Amino acid sequence: MNIKEQMMDPLLEAGLVETRRHFFSRTAGGIGTAALASLVNPELFAERNDSPAEAGRSMPGLPHFAPKAKRVIYLFMSGAPSQLDMWDYKPKMKEYYNKDLPDSIRNGQRITTMTSGQKRFPVAPSIFKFNRHGSNGAWVSELLPHTAKMVDDLAVIKTVNTEAINHDPAITYIQTGSQLPGRPSAGAWMSYGLGSMNENLPAFMVLHSTVNGGFGGQALYSRLWGAGFLSNRHQGVSLRSAGDPVLYLSNPAGMSDTMRRKMLDELGRLNRERFAAVGDPEIQARISQYEMAYRMQTSVPELTDISGESKATLDMYGPEVKKPGTFAANCLLARRLAERGVRFTQIFIRQWDQHGNLPKDIRRQCGIVDKPSWALVQDLKQRGMLDDTLVVWGGEFGRTIYCQGGLSNKNYGRDHHPRCYTKWMAGAGIKGGIVYGETDDFSYNVTDKPVHIHDLNATILNQFGVDHKRLTYRHQGRDFRLTDVHGKVVTDILS
């Protein structure tokens, strides 16, 4: 009896389903919950929209045009670092110390509930010194001595803006193009459109940096690296700093590699039979995910073993580089992932939400990220990888010039500010040594060359040879994209 005849027999079909169910229940604690994101089948690396709704339609071949970038490393400062204390130098504000923010500057713009009840909005000038650096004399705070040394490699964008005013919708917005949960993340879009460059590692990986001292910072939810309505094979795989680098990657107790191989072979046979009967492409994706998990048992330990790195390299990243999970260690791992062809690597670090005691807290945070961020760019540069690796640094919004809470000449806090803030980009066709855009004297409003977060994402995709308007997925009767219905490429920062 062939498989089609079996599927016509309800008793035999029920038996097959039960066999598969029993198999999955026995393996759920091993690879069944790995939730890995990439496919191993080479012809599936660059996916096309093959949903039933898309029958008869095909996406244009990708990339749409010659790319400058092969991979991106996104350093995400969760909690919103203060542009006023790091990048956006406003010397005139010293004259406004403890004076109220002029109504003409705020112009009725909304503020958070955390400061809306304040009787006044006193101006808090930055206490940190700024100096000019690089060939074009970019202003950089004393908080970033290492980053200041490489401003000629950076495009510093001072006019990034967003509509979101609170952390969770703002981070969701910049990561997915929507303030509402449910959309694919940028890394998932990249995996969907361009696929993987390594059969042994996912296209999209996420590193979480440990936070020590101070408060824990804003929560980071898995939807920020999720696949939304795309196949779950495109979601980011989170690399852990303790235990298994990826959950459930190791063999369960009592299971040898040989046993696991036999188990996967049998599981693959059952899934292929089911695919032959029903034709569900997700079944093939499931097979590929299990195989990826098997190969990652070898590739991931090799990735995380930094014993072969030179002393000079380790010293460049700083003393924390040998502590798994630190920002320094994650920056080094990001370079190693880039070397191995991972398309999208995202490093998250929290604790930038400084509503009070900002001078002390931001000095600590900058001390954590400054040298490793610089080292990452230099490491890529000296290996010849910066030319095709895009590095992005920044958070979800900026900080207000006015103080939240008590103000003194040594201490202050700042509220959320979506109207303008600073990010930088480097590598992969980005002009170095430029400062793009301008804000008013209060770093409150953009006065020249605004860059919306949709524009930022459009520019990132552009460097990969992707037209952000053409990378779409039809869902519930609508063509979705990372930039929603907005966005334009910031061509002025491109070489």
Structure overview:
- The structure is a single chain.
- 46% of the residues are buried.
- This protein has twelve helices and 17 strands.
- Strands 1, 4, 5, 6, 7, 8, 11, 12 and 15 form a nine-stranded mixed β-sheet that branches. A two-stranded antiparallel sheet has the order 2-3.
- It has 495 residues and is α/β, with parallel strands linked by helices.
- The chain has a single domain (37-254, 274-493), classed as Alkaline Phosphatase, subunit A.
- The longest helix is centred in the C-terminal third of the chain and has 25 residues, at 358-382.
- What summary fits the major beta sheet? 9 strands, mixed
Our estimate of the beta-strand percent is 15-25%
CATH topology type: Alkaline Phosphatase, subunit A
Instruction: Give the count of structural domains.
Output: 1
State Rg. Answer: 24 Å
Q: What is the level-2 CATH architecture name?
A: 3-Layer(aba) Sandwich
Give the number of DSSP strands: 17
